[in-house]
Amino acid sequence: MTARDPTDAQLAAQYEAYPYPARDARDEAKRLVIGSPSHLREIDHWVFGGRRPATQPLRALMAGGGSGDGSIMLAQQMTTLGRPGDVTWLDRSAQAKRVAQARAAARGLQNIRFEDGSLLDLPGSGLGPFDYIDCCGVLHHLPDPAEGLAALASVLAPGGGIGIMVYAPHGRTGVYILQDALRLLAPPEEAPAARVELAKRLWKQTPETAWLRKNPWIDDHIKGGDAGLYDLLLNPRDRAYTVPQLAALVAGAGLRIACLVEPLRYDPDSYLADPKLRARTAGLDPIARAALAEAICGNMGIHIAYLTRDRVPPAPWQEDSAVPVLRELDGPALARSLRPDGVLPVSFDGLRVAVPLPRLAAALLARIDGATPWGAILDGVVAAGASREQALRDRDALVHAMERMNRLLVAAPA
């Protein structure tokens, strides 16, 4: 695990001193950290199109597993749902490994394998192939992100997919300015603890005109402890990607973007009601549309994407046997909370979007429990007085609205 260059050595020292994110194994008794990518329901839906059987073992890799958020989440979800397979944690930080192992032990998880190493060494490592690979918050720190993504693709099984998170520039306004300041005050060659102490002092003295003080969507330096502050403001190497830059990186590895999470955020029509503007957006390709949404919103600090080699077929929404599942939502509770006007207010990092739902949305949502197939749900709605035609139309409208929010997905078939 030789460092690729002096900056890479500094990066390795950082994550030994401050495993990221800061986690305490005792907290596992209180909560499971849930997020994207690598939520099992999302993998089933966005990577496999809701068509890969739940009984088929899933081999997953967490490339740059850090203190274990993704590994613990996916391994716990697989255990809870009785899903066969295993999760391989891979990282070069010994301290991060200790934290992740302690968290797994606290939960009694038996389906995580721990491997020491760099994802850049995956080709020829003997690891893999993997059906699913997570690389969250890693590529943008590498000496050559394209080399890193190619290394991941080299161990991806046919039909599999990759979940990534990379930084995005507009929502990180102010971050790189303070990084420049701290390179002058606390050079990367100094010890991590000394750099953290200086960064804390600078943040206290930073004037109100500093752009980061005006950015409410970035708070790792405030809420993330020393590890969060270091990762945000003292990281010796990070770069941010616009959507077109990310698309180019992905294409260079022979992959494609199957989904940007959440799709609704990347649709400029979510924010633009002017018909003349919409006439212009209609002529843009999907990447350009996403780039426009990114540029006009200004609050995207990260991009989360699922990548595949081939186009993923649309989820089987119209098949009676398909089982809809709400991601971290309770169907009956959501149905009861809907406004009389049928509009669902959604917030993305301070940006509010009004999502209209169909008339039968409450009746449909109340019957979605993650186990009942569409056929039975529709039968129940029709038995309650709706016509079959209206139930089908409203089902399709509900899917269109909530799949784009990454909230209504198709469960893996039994």
TrEMBL record:
Every Methyltransferase type domain range: 63-161
EC number: 2.1.1.222, 2.1.1.64
Keyword Ubl conjugation carried by entry: no
Domain of life: Bacteria
CDD domains assigned: AdoMet_MTases
GO molecular function, one term: 3-demethylubiquinol 3-O-methyltransferase activity
InterPro entries: Methyltransf_12
GO BP, sorted A to Z: methylation
Keywords: Methyltransferase, Transferase
Name of this protein: Class I SAM-dependent methyltransferase
Biological source species: Falsiroseomonas tokyonensis
Lineage: Bacteria, Pseudomonadati, Pseudomonadota, Alphaproteobacteria, Acetobacterales
